[in-house]
Amino acid sequence: MRTPKRLYAQQRIIYQPELLTCPHCDDRLALCNSLAWDKTVQTLQGVLSVASRPSHCRHTTCEGAQLRLLSAEAQGIALPGSTYGYDVMVRIGWWRQHYHARRVEVGDIGGFYVKLQDVCAHKGVIVTTVGVQEGAQKVADGIAF
Where would I find the H helices in 35-85? Predict the structure, then answer.
């Protein structure tokens, strides 16, 4: 098993909620003394140490007294439970979509064979840069493109 790589943050950011007043009683919100979450996030610009300090309503009788309001900007940096920023996730998704980074599957071989029959072709070629699944290779060998 590989040893996890240590990430050293280049910048520390503690976000506070954008709301300044309680949505229920319109009184000024107070910041909590603890952090709601604190994590290291890898972004395309570098490694960040990001935390969110919630706020709450000061009135115990208010409907929103039990609510802990978080920063929307902080939650827009990374998915909950993930150490990768949204920008990294989007870049990986773009690469996968752009370069079709998946192996050829059995269904791809079958679909290609049906298309060959539809156009009455005697031969066909599948070209891939990422490989073919083992089962798809067996199907393709049996069809003999």
Answer: 72-75
For the chain, the domains span 11-85, 106-143
Of the pLDDT bands very low, low, confident and very high (cuts 50, 70, 90), residue 79 is: confident
Question: Looking at the whole model, is its pTM more than 0.85?
Answer: no
- Is residue 108 pLDDT above 80, yes or no? no
Close Cβ partners of 89 (under 8 Å, ≥ 6 residues apart):
79, 82
> Exposure of 64 by Cβ count < 10 A (0-12 exposed, 13-18 middle, 19+ buried)?
middle
Run of H or E including 46:
strand 46-52
What distance separates the 2 farthest-apart alpha carbons in the chain?
Answer: 79
Count the alpha carbons within 13 Å of 121 in the hemisphere toward its beta carbon: 12
What is the SS3 assignment for 86-122?
HHHHHHHHHHHHHHCCCCECHHHHHHHHHHHHHCCCC
